[in-house]
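Just scan my protein:

. . .
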Amino acid sequence: MPDRDRLLTATPDPRFFRTEEGQIVRPPEGWVLLPPGDAGLTRRVKAAGPTWLVQEKVGRKLFSRGLFAPALRVKTLREGLEVERADPAHERKLAVAAARRDRDQSTYVQDFRAEVFQFLAFSETFADIARGMADRVTALATPVGSGTVARTKRIEVDERAEAAVIAWLRHQTTAYDDMKIERVKGARRDVRRVLAQQSRALLSAHRSSQPHRAEGCALCRAATAP
């Protein structure tokens, strides 16, 4: 019986998997693959003992393809969870938890928008543009599961707001999405750095009270587009 967790990737042969160390292994006898999709059951199976997690890289993202664990453990925990979920008290507990998450999300959206607006710091001349841009950046960046920088916990919320603004400007006011960037280490980062400088220059122009024609401004057009 394995005594530790393992992280695996698939091989051309569906019976075998590659470990992080490059070894080719086969799941132990009596183990089954628990597919992704039931987070509650997956957490319990992982907490009850060693498991082997199968991941697949698609582009730059990693996706879980399931969890190998002893069949008896999976069966026992699944049956126990089904009994819990059949209890009306479980539904009430879920409803309370969902309501709490909704409140937390609503509060976070408001706080994040305030941080975005504060970072923009546009002059009164462009106050309407700032409000519209704050709304758009927030709507794009804050949904749960969006995978954007606004959802990370690794940096403070003010830094998330700044990064989200720069990312939004990169996609909305530059040709970044259509650029053919060399597949060389650091090339994409260098392009983003240059575009970030352009975005900061755009922001600076709106922190001045000097008016300009909205039709000729990429930021103004993006912030007021239908």
